[in-house]
Design brief:
The complex is a heterodimer of chains A (about 350) and B (about 120).
Chain A (H helix, E strand, L loop, with lengths): L2 H38 L15 H10 L11 H17 L37 H22 L3 H32 L4 H10 L7 H14 L11 H4 L9 H26 L15 H26 L7 H29 L6
Helix pairs in contact in A: 1-9, 1-10, 2-9, 3-4, 3-9, 4-5, 5-7, 5-11, 7-11, 9-10
Chain B lengths: L5 H24 L28 H34 L3 H23 L6
The chains are: A mainly alpha (about 350), B mainly alpha (about 120).
């Protein structure tokens, strides 16, 4: 079997793994959100389906699929049908550039099907050298899904929700992009594998705390989570940009939202918390077990940030729209610019430290 | 190399396939008995009297214009940030820093102007 076929098989396996992880993760995150919010509000939440409520999200999914698929008369049909796909696709695609574990050395893989001449297996679907640019560009495609959905429905609530969401997302994209520039400065590369490697050899980039803070806040706004969920604030806009969607098309907006949550958490971890790096441990020391440990540690780090998202959502009230714009344009943008310049100054001053 | 991007194409096809499968499945499995009330615009029970695509505030337009300008400027920073570390280590010269400092200064002038003009206000 030649090298190309081998790589193709491994790529398909990795894609299957990442997509399964994301989609199963979504069901678990939805359940976790409902349970944690229930605890925060002193109730129990869904705890009957399967073992302590584990099947709740699957039951909800099946329910959504067998519900009536209403396509109202007044919608722009093509755009209306396309919007959930445009929303869902980038949410699943972002995971493709995230390194989710240490490299498996070639000697460790015993797969009789594939022959002996294996290369080292990088646990990342596409090891491209512009991973960061890919992340920034693919996340902004999600805005199109929202705008298309909101516009096509010919509903005032949807249109307002979509307008707000798009203005908010483009506003917070600037601080997001700038705080990533600070990370790129420290890593000297746009490749995510390289960024993790630099952190593994040196220090985690969480030390650049202002950049991390700006990135975190911007990610909250980009994923439309409270305290920034102006796009679908129930009291004013019913359900915002997905008011007139029913059955699985509504379900796909929901899925995309939570998939975005998981991939954004994965990006926070990759950029600032060393990715799959296990602190004070050499992942290559114990062969496959070490690699497995790195994957598990990566999942634990992601879970922590997902929990943070849920925690914040159920603890903080919503911003007013002018406050949101004020924070984005007049506070975060200058702070993130200062972070970039400050990082560069520090790097010039302490040049001897990272030679 | 272009072959590095092949996995992304496969992911793209898988993601689109998943979405279309879901949407087709619910269309096939779900019941369908539409009536005129069900297919109306939802406006909290009030009969809608006009098209939803009305004029909206010019602020959204201004925000998107400023966004495009700033976003392009940020894109310029990416190549600079990528080579910054290597340049410092290899040459030891601080030229690269002052170059971008000048750029940021010019950026700040534009930002100050937009702020004073009231383009960032939202009342």
């Amino acid at each position: 079997m030649d090298a190309f076929t081998q790589n193709l098989i491994f790529t398909v396996l990795k894609i299957a793994f990442v997509l399964t992880f994301t989609l199963l993760g979504v069901t678990m995150v939805i359940l976790a959100e409902r349970r944690f919010s229930a605890f925060i509000q002193d109730r129990l939440g869904p705890n009957r389906t399967w073992f302590g409520g584990l099947g709740q999200s699957f039951a909800d999914g099946i329910k959504l699929i067998v519900k009536e698929d209403v396509i109202p008369n007044h919608v722009d049909r093509l755009v209306y049908l396309l919007a959930p796909v445009v929303m869902m696709t980038p949410a699943l695609m972002i995971g493709a550039v995230i390194p989710f574990g240490a490299t498996i050395p070639s000697g460790e893989l015993w797969l009789p099907l594939l022959g002996a001449n294996l290369e080292n297996l990088v646990l990342q679907i596409a090891n491209i050298n512009v991973g960061i640019l890919y992340f920034v560009s693919v996340t902004s495609i999600g805005v199109y899904g929202i705008v298309m959905g909101g516009w096509a429905q010919n509903n005032k609530y949807s249109l307002l929700g979509a307008l707000r969401a798009s203005a908010q997302m483009i506003s917070y994209e600037l601080p997001l992009g700038l705080s990533v520039v600070a990370v790129v400065l420290m890593a000297g590369s746009l490749s995510l594998g390289e960024i993790v490697k630099v952190q593994q050899e040196g220090f985690w980039f969480i030390l650049n705390f202002p950049a991390f803070l700006v990135f975190l806040i911007a990610v909250f706004a980009e994923t439309n989570r409270l305290p920034f969920d102006l796009a679908e604030c129930e009291q004013e806009l019913v359900a915002g940009y997905h008011t007139e969607y029913s059955s699985m098309k509504f379900g796909m907006f929901l899925l995309a939202e939570y998939a975005n949550l998981i991939t954004s958490s994965a990006f926070i971890v990759t950029l600032f918390f060393g990715g799959w790096d296990v602190p004070f441990y050499d992942e290559t020391a114990h062969g496959l077990a070490g690699v497995l440990l790195s994957v598990i540690v990566f999942a634990i780090k992601i879970s922590f940030f997902v929990f943070l998202f849920i925690w914040v959502r159920w603890s903080l009230p919503r911003f007013r729209y002018d406050q949101l714009m004020h924070l984005g344009w007049k506070r975060l943008l200058p702070i993130s610019l200062a972070t970039v310049v400050g990082t560069a100054i520090l790097m010039v001053l302490f040049k001897d430290l990272y030679h | 190399m272009l072959i590095d991007y092949l996995p992304l194409l496969i992911v793209f096809l898988a993601a689109v396939g998943f979405s279309v499968f879901n949407w087709g499945l619910s269309h096939l499995v779900g019941p369908s008995n539409p009536d005129s009330k069900k297919l109306e615009v939802y406006e909290s029970g009030v009969t809608p009297d006009s098209d939803a695509r009305l004029k909206f505030s010019i602020k959204f337009y201004i925000i998107s214009m400023i966004f495009i300008i700033f976003d392009i400027e940020i894109v310029f920073m990416y190549p600079w940030a990528t080579v910054f570390k290597d340049f410092l280590i290899k040459t030891g010269s601080h030229f690269i820093f002052f170059e971008m400092a000048t750029f940021v200064l010019i950026l700040l002038v534009g930002y100050y102007y937009a702020w004073k003009k009231g383009a960032l206000e939202w009342e």
